[in-house]
Automatic annotation (TrEMBL):
Keyword Oxidoreductase: yes
Domain Semialdehyde dehydrogenase NAD-binding: 1-55
Enzyme Commission no: 1.2.1.11
Family to which this protein belongs: Belongs to the aspartate-semialdehyde dehydrogenase family.
GO MF annotation list: aspartate-semialdehyde dehydrogenase activity; NAD binding; protein dimerization activity
Keyword Oxidoreductase: yes
InterPro entries reported in the protein's UniProt record: ASADH-related, NAD(P)-bd_dom_sf, Semialdehyde_DH_NAD-bd, Semialdhyde_DH_dimer_dom
Alphabetic keyword roster: Oxidoreductase
Protein name: Aspartate-semialdehyde dehydrogenase
């Protein structure tokens, strides 16, 4: 086979062993699981943010003893709502971030039929989610050095994650402080002008405009906007000054499309376009 997608419900150690077994046998693995996100030579890639991390694959192949196989993973679904919006703002010296995520029940693999307790309810806890939301962005913003990915030193991120009664769509309220504070217009221009590698290559699943800013005071809304560009874009709104941080805004992404299956497909498209996956 040319490659496999991995999205299995098993113990972490079992997933790690399974994915490495495929990779060692020369089969590339594009994983939607979290098991290998912190393996130092496994790239965790959002195609618009850190495609350069794919070059660590050569070191991983040497470790695994294979010329063709490897493992590449996507990040946690909650990151897809706010990290893309923060990424182009790093040019202004992004120093501190506070984020509160409001995550749909499909992120837990549930529907309202299978989880009736979520109707008219909010649960202020999602196991392990806050740690992922604070730490994984630093790997995305890290660098490849001596055959491993070294995490970025900053910005410092603190997160609070809540489960809310929406079927699909993760929303985030973001507060940011900068070393070189930009203007509101500079932030909007950075979002409007941002193009990642997925757009440069015109990958089939890539949104034409990755970041969409809404001027309306009540947008983005989960039900209205989660399917923007086929559910693969990130929607942003309500940018304004804050009394404690420099600015605050809200973001929205489709957690099962951009944040899960669609993100894995887009990563596979990038791996094919860059020559890491080739037909046998």
């Amino acid at each position: 086979m040319d490659f496999v997608f991995s999205a299995v419900d098993m113990k972490k150690e079992e997933i790690q062993a399974l994915e490495e077994a495929y990779a060692r046998r020369g089969c590339p693995v594009v994983s939607n699981n979290s098991a290998h996100r912190w393996t130092p030579d496994v790239p965790m890639v959002v195609p618009e943010i850190n495609p350069e991390h794919l070059r660590v694959i050569e070191a991983q192949r040497r470790r695994l003893g294979t010329e063709r196989g490897f493992i590449a993973v996507k990040s946690n679904c909650s990151l897809q709502s706010y990290v893309p919006a923060l990424h182009p703002l790093r040019a202004f010296g992004l120093e501190q971030v506070l984020v509160c995520t409001y995550q749909a029940i499909s992120g837990a693999g549930k529907t309202f039929e299978t989880w009736p307790e979520m109707v008219d309810n909010v649960i202020p806890y999602i196991g392990g989610e806050e740690e992922k939301s604070e730490q994984e962005p630093l790997k995305l913003w890290g660098r490849v050095e001596n055959g491993v990915i070294v995490n970025a030193a900053g910005p410092s991120i603190t997160a609070q994650c809540l489960r809310v009664p929406a079927s699909n769509g993760h929303m985030a309220a973001v507060f940011a402080r900068f070393r070189n504070k930009p203007s509101l217009d500079e932030i909007k221009a950075a979002w409007a002008g941002f193009q990642g590698r997925a757009q440069e290559l015109a990958l089939p699943s890539a949104p034409k405009q990755f970041l969409h800013y809404f001027e309306e005071p009540d947008r983005p809304q989960t039900r209205l906007d989660r399917m923007t560009e086929g559910g693969m874009a990130v929607c942003i709104g309500r940018l304004r000054p804050d009394t404690q941080y420099d600015y605050k805004f809200v973001c929205l992404s489709h957690n099962t499309l951009r944040g899960a299956a669609g993100g894995a497909v887009l990563l596979a498209e990038l791996l094919c376009a860059e020559g890491y996956i080739q037909r046998r």
